[in-house]
């Protein structure tokens, strides 16, 4: 096909008549070089090769393209790029002839656009879209077509073809940096561009408007290539005007992007911001004095009205673009204009004020942006760049005052913060206005942005002020600034207060101004908070405020806090005692004192407020020094703070001396109470400072105070020492030696007596406590120093001495600590100590009257027993007696009381620390004593033995078993010896003994337990033995069966016949003889039955070795079944015994049999009881049948046939209760067996 085309082409060229129109074919071939089809591009190149030999207007283009056959064929975009390369030589070609040829060729090509149809012209312009050159460029050749198309769009937009629209877009694409110079050389090109920018109609769906395409051509290179500033200005003006009138968001966004991208000179923007000529001079400083009077007022109002909203709308839109503009040359040029605009915005009428707030914010934001551009580091700007006089700080402050919008305030404050570093002197003159406004407005807002504005303002303004101000001036200014913040504090959101004050003081410098803040906070509380607080809320408010003040202090280093406390004390010392005295000394005040007194102005406050201020200041110091946060910081920086603390101590002592002198001076005045309270607080502060001192210095100070003649001072010294000793610290040997040297001094206080008995008793008590703490800390490694302490304490608690009870309590605690620490060194004091201690514990009335005294005695006894268990055997009997005695007393105080807990602990100590060879003989001897008062003492006594048996080793138990057996045989005879006493009380006491014996039984082996069990059995069953022993034995058997469970069946075989015999002997349906020779025979028989039935139930329950053989079952069956007729004790006891004991025993008995041949006689014998004459017996038998069925479940089916007749009889029983129970029983049997029984009846 290509061959045919080439042949036709040659024929066409050889025909002279077609030669004049050959260019049409060239244009077509050039267009096809950009075809997306590869073969079309290849064919087009071959055709051009055929034309390459023909001389024509396009031979330069043809000859340039033909060698690029492969490139054009491979890349669809290559032809456009290659043509661009060809015509770029127009820019570089120096030879006139070659330049003319290229230029003519380009003109011929572009002229074809006008003569061709639009669809061909479109493709031709596409091929030439990369061609850009300034001289004879494509833009000036295409301008007529662009103009025609734009006119056509305005007149008949619907008649514009899509290809024509594309041609217009491509033509606008020729507006670039290469053709930018054409805009000022050919005004027509600029007009066409402006006309395109204002063409908003959409020509084709999916194609951008001509307006957007034209705007997008205003790029940074294009705008920079425009050498004529007037053209640039015209384009800027066009953009801003278009933005004002634009209603299309896409257009507005495009304009914003265009302005953001181009680099603009600030002078050009300034011109656009200037108002019309009539009002251009408004607000300038060149006005004459006459204009500033009446003429200025009328001119202002007129100008405001004439300028109207359109001007401010345009300004606002320009400022929106400008506020974040980065590519701005000479931005300082805009500053006077922006201040002029700000001045104008402040002159608007109140009705328009709300509309201008946003404009003000934009102006302030632009000023901030310019300042940050001129001074990125926040430092000063050279005068040749920006004159200080052009920056109107007063106008910014006025903007803050006039505006009510928080956002405007924020912008203004941020600007002032930046300006403070650039022009600090100008900001200094307005500092109080700025911070007063912040306190009244911004600080009250509860949002993160406002908080950041405050922080940034403080951070930027204050350092600049400090840098330019002298010390005296800045101190005065800073006091005022801090005062503003303190006054505003009640209105600041609570969670913002601490960060704001911390930021303020941190910026000012905590070492210089933290103390000023604290004093101003105290002054505010004294003069304002107290006045508005209700009477009942003052303490709570003061507590909350104090916590807040401490929190403020703890935001800073401990060194700064201590320095601030020293400054506060020095300031308080300089304050006069009373206001009247201040008035007398007005003429003698020094300049420095006057400066200090500005914090708390004496002239504006009352004498009461002055006293309150002093007291509050000292009270706070004491609380701060005791706070956990402060102490933690001191511990972390102990080396750094030690010197500061010592200096603080000196200042505190000086202040105490000054307060003491004032107190003496005012002894006869009404203010003496205040001075005493202030002195007490000062002493309290001294205590807290002492606690911070290095230990060596502290011990020396305390040693001196202990020799002070005043008892109160000695007591304070002891309290200080106690507080120090209670700190969990590891002391160096040198410091320990210094502490130990205080022991003789403290002993002298303990042994010494003066006239002031009460005061001295407190001091002696405190000294004993101090000795206790010293021993606790240092006694283990230095025991010899505390032997005299134990001797002194033992002499104090001797019965013959009559000491104060509190002193005795402290002496007992001291004995407890020292004895446990000295260990063997305390043995020589036992003969004196133990009798005194036991005598003290015998005095029950004194012990009960003071729980602390009782606790002290118990602590001393316990420590001695724990420490010297092998040396107290001579006193052990007395110790046991007193412990058992105190158990009753302390139990009445409650199980959770400290005394009861201490007694329990002492019992445990006795039971677990003493060896059996020491304790068991004492137990035997003590038992004979406490038996006289067994009701209160037997339980506690037996609990000691029980716990001791529990910790005995196997070999110890074996060696002492015979001794324990003799003891228990004697103790078990307790019931027989008290047979006529209340059975319930006897039972409780007996259970204590049995529990103790069972504790021993569970530790014995079968071999050792069997003889013991038979011995107990013989003890109960001998002929001459009281029958009450049977009660004890069967109770014991029941308890042992519960503990040993299945193991008890190994020994229970011997009990079967005695159980059966006893059951028959106490069955009143079989015999009328009394079993016990006592008036309480029925009660005892009921109790005996209960023990037997309970023991049998446990044997049956835990039987896993088929203990119930046929013989044993037959031996027990009738005695047990016959108990259904035994109405011993009356109906109530009979019913309780049958329900709780007998029926469970019979039911479990049937389970233990595990043989249906034995079930039948058992069931039958029970059924026979349903024919008893007594309805209660019949009722009991009926319940027993049901219990058997519940235990045997489906196995009971074999017993059902013989049960039916009996149940049928009971269905018609004369007793309604029995009849109803029978019906219930049948229903439950149906549920158990799973089949209906009604058919049997």
Automatic annotation (TrEMBL):
The keyword Glycoprotein does not apply. Pfam families: BP28CT, HEAT_HEATR1. InterPro entries: ARM-like (IPR011989), ARM-type_fold (IPR016024), BP28_C_dom (IPR012954), HEAT_Utp10/HEAT1 (IPR056473), UTP10 (IPR040191). It comes from the Eukaryota. Residues 1208-1235 form a coiled coil. SMART domains: BP28CT. GO terms for cellular component: 90S preribosome; small-subunit processome; t-UTP complex. One of its GO terms (biological process) is maturation of SSU-rRNA from tricistronic rRNA transcript (SSU-rRNA, 5.8S rRNA, LSU-rRNA). Keywords: Coiled coil, Nucleus, Phosphoprotein, Ribonucleoprotein, Ribosome biogenesis, rRNA processing, Transcription, Transcription regulation. It is found in: Nucleus, Nucleolus. Part of the small subunit (SSU) processome, composed of more than 70 proteins and the RNA chaperone small nucleolar RNA (snoRNA) U3. Interacts with MYC; the interaction is required for localization of MYC to the nucleolus. Ribosome biogenesis factor; required for recruitment of Myc to nucleoli. Involved in nucleolar processing of pre-18S ribosomal RNA. Required for optimal pre-ribosomal RNA transcription by RNA polymerase I. Part of the small subunit (SSU) processome, first precursor of the small eukaryotic ribosomal subunit. Involved in nucleolar processing of pre-18S ribosomal RNA. PANTHER family: BAP28 (PTHR13457), HEAT REPEAT-CONTAINING PROTEIN 1 (PTHR13457:SF1). This is HEAT repeat-containing protein 1. It comes from Ursus americanus (American black bear). The lineage of its organism: Eukaryota, Metazoa, Chordata, Craniata, Vertebrata.
């Amino acid at each position: 096909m290509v061959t045919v085309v080439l042949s036709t082409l040659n024929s066409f060229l050889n025909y002279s008549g077609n030669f004049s129109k050959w260019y049409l074919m060239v244009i077509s071939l050039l267009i096809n070089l950009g075809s997306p089809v590869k073969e079309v591009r290849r064919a087009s190149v071959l055709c051009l090769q055929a034309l390459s030999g023909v001389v024509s207007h396009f031979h330069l283009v043809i000859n340039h393209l033909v060698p690029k056959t492969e490139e054009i064929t491979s890349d669809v975009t290559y032809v456009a790029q290659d043509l661009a390369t060809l015509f770029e030589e127009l820019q570089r070609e120096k030879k006139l002839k070659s330049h003319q040829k290229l230029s003519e060729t380009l003109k011929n090509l572009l002229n074809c656009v006008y003569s061709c149809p639009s669809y061909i012209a479109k493709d031709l312009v596409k091929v030439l879209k990369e061609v850009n050159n300034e001289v004879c460029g494509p833009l000036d050749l295409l301008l007529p077509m662009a103009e025609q198309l734009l006119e056509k769009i305005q007149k008949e937009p619907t008649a514009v073809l899509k290809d024509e629209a594309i041609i217009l877009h491509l033509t606008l694409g020729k507006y670039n940096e290469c053709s930018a110079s054409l805009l000022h050389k050919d005004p027509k090109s600029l007009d066409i561009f402006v006309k395109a920018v204002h063409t908003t109609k959409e020509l084709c769906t999916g194609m951008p408007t001509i307006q957007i395409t034209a705007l997008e051509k205003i790029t940074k290179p294009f705008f920079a290539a425009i050498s004529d500033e007037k053209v640039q200005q015209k384009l800027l003006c066009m953009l801003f005007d278009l933005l004002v009138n634009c209603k299309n968001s896409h257009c507005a966004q495009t304009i914003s992007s265009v302005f953001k991208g181009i680099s603009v000179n600030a002078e050009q923007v300034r011109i656009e911001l200037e108002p019309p000529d009539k009002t251009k001079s408004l607000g300038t400083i060149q006005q004459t004095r006459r204009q500033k009077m009446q003429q200025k007022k009328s001119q202002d109002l007129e100008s405001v009205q004439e300028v109207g909203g359109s001007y401010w709308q345009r300004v606002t839109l320009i400022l929106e673009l400008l506020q974040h503009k980065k590519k701005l040359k000479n931005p300082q040029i805009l500053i006077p204009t922006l201040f002029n605009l700000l001045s104008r915005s402040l002159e608007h009428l109140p009705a328009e004020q709300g509309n201008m707030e946003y404009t003000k914010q934009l102006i302030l934001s632009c000023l901030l942006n310019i300042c940050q551009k001129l001074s990125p580091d926040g430092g000063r700007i050279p005068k040749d760049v920006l004159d200080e006089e052009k920056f109107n700080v007063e106008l910014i402050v006025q903007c803050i005052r006039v505006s009510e919008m928080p956002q405007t305030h924020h912008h203004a404050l941020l600007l002032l913060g930046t300006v403070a570093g650039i022009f600090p002197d100008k900001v200094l003159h307005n500092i109080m206005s700025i911070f007063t406004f912040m306190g009244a407005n911004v600080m009250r807002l509860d949002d993160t942005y406002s908080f950041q504005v405050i922080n940034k303002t403080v951070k930027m303004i204050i350092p600049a002020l400090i840098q330019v101000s002298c010390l005296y001036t800045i101190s005065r200014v800073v006091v005022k600034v801090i005062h503003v913040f303190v006054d505003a504090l009640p209105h600041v959101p609570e969670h913002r207060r601490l960060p704001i004050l911390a930021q303020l003081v941190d910026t000012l410098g905590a070492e210089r101004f933290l103390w000023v803040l604290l004093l101003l906070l105290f002054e505010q509380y004294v003069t304002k908070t107290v006045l508005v607080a209700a009477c009942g809320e003052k303490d709570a408010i003061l507590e909350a405020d104090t916590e807040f003040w401490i929190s403020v202090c703890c935001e800073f280093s401990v060194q700064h806090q201590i320095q601030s406390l020293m400054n506060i004390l020095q300031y308080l010392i300089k304050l006069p005692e009373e206001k009247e005295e201040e008035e007398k000394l007005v003429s003698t005040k020094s300049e420095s004192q006057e400066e200090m007194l500005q914090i708390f102005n004496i002239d504006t406050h009352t004498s009461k407020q002055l006293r309150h201020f002093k007291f509050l200041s000292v009270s706070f110091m004491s609380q701060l020094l005791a706070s956990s946060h402060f102490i933690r910081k001191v511990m972390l920086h102990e080396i750094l703070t030690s010197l500061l603390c010592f200096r603080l101590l000196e200042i505190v002592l000086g202040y105490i001396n000054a307060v003491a002198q004032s107190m003496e001076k005012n002894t006869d005045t009404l203010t003496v109470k205040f001075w005493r309270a202030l002195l007490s607080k000062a002493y309290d502060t001294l205590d807290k400072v002492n606690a911070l001192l290095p230990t060596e210095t502290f011990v020396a100070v305390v040693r001196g105070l202990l020799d002070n003649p005043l008892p109160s001072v000695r007591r304070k010294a002891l309290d200080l020492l106690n507080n120090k000793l209670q700190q969990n610290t590891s002391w160096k040997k040198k410091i320990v030696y210094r502490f130990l040297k205080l022991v003789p001094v403290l002993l002298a206080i303990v042994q010494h007596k003066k006239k002031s008995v009460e005061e001295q008793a407190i001091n002696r008590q405190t000294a004993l406590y101090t000795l206790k703490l010293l021993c606790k800390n240092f006694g283990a490694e230095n025991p010899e120093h505390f032997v005299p302490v134990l001797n002194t304490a033992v002499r104090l608690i001797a019965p013959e001495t009559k000491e104060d009870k509190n002193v005795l309590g402290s002496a007992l605690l001291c004995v407890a600590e020292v004895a446990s620490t000295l260990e063997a060194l305390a043995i020589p004091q036992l003969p004196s100590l133990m009798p005194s201690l036991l005598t003290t514990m015998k005095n029950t009335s004194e012990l009960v009257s003071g729980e602390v005294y009782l606790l002290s005695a118990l602590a001393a006894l316990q420590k001695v027993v724990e420490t010297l268990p092998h040396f107290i055997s001579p006193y052990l009997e007395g110790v046991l007696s007193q412990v058992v005695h105190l158990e009753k007393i302390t139990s009445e105080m409650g199980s959770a009381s400290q005394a009861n807990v201490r007694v329990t602990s002492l019992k445990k100590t006795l039971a677990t620390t003493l060896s059996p060879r020491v304790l068991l003989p004492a137990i035997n001897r003590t038992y004979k004593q406490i038996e006289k008062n067994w009701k209160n003492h037997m339980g506690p006594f037996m609990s000691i033995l029980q716990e001791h048996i529990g910790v005995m080793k196997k070999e110890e138990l074996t060696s002492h078993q015979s001794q324990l057996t003799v003891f228990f045989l004697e103790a078990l005879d307790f019931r027989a010896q008290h047979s006529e006493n209340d059975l319930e009380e006897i039972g409780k006491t007996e259970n204590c003994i049995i529990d103790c014996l069972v504790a021993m039984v569970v530790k014995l082996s079968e071999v050792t337990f069997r003889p013991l069990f038979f011995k107990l059995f013989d003890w109960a069953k001998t002929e001459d033995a009281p029958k009450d022993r049977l009660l004890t034995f069967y109770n014991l058997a029941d308890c042992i069966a519960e503990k040993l469970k299945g193991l008890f069946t190994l020994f229970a075989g011997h009990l079967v016949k005695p159980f059966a015999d006893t059951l028959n002997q106490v069955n009143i349906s079989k015999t009328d003889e009394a079993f016990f020779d006592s008036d309480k025979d029925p009660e005892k028989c009921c109790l005996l039955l209960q023990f037997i039935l309970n023991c049998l139930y446990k044997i049956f329950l835990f039987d896993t070795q088929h203990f119930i053989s046929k013989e044993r079952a037959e031996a027990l069956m009738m005695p047990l079944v016959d108990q259904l007729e035994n109405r011993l004790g009356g109906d109530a006891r009979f019913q309780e015994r049958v329900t709780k004991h007998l029926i469970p025993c019979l039911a479990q008995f049937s389970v233990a049999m595990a043989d249906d041949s034995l079930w039948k006689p058992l069931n039958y014998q029970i059924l026979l009881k349903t024919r008893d004459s007594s309805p209660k017996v019949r009722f009991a038998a009926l319940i027993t049948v049901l219990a058997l069925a519940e235990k045997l479940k489906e196995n009971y089916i074999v017993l059902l046939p013989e049960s039916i007749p009996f149940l049928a009889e009971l269905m018609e029983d004369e007793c309604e209760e029995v009849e109803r129970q029978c019906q219930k029983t049948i229903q439950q049997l149906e549920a158990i067996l799973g089949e209906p029984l009604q058919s049997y009846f």
